[in-house]
Amino acid sequence: MKEKSSRLNTIREIVSRQKIGSQEELLTVLTEHGYSLTQATLSRDLKRLKITKTLDSTGAYQYKLSEPPFLNGGGGEVQIIGANSLEFSGNIAVMKTRKGYASGIAAEIDDEGGDAILGTIAGDDTILIIPREGYSRAEITALLSNLIGTN
Amino acid sequence: MKEKSSRLNTIREIVSRQKIGSQEELLTVLTEHGYSLTQATLSRDLKRLKITKTLDSTGAYQYKLSEPPFLNGGGGEVQIIGANSLEFSGNIAVMKTRKGYASGIAAEIDDEGGDAILGTIAGDDTILIIPREGYSRAEITALLSNLIGTN
DNA sequence: TCAATAATTGTATATTTTTGCATGTTTTTT
DNA sequence: AAAAAACATGCAAAAATATACAATTATTGA
Question: pTM for this structure?
Answer without folding.
Answer: 0.61
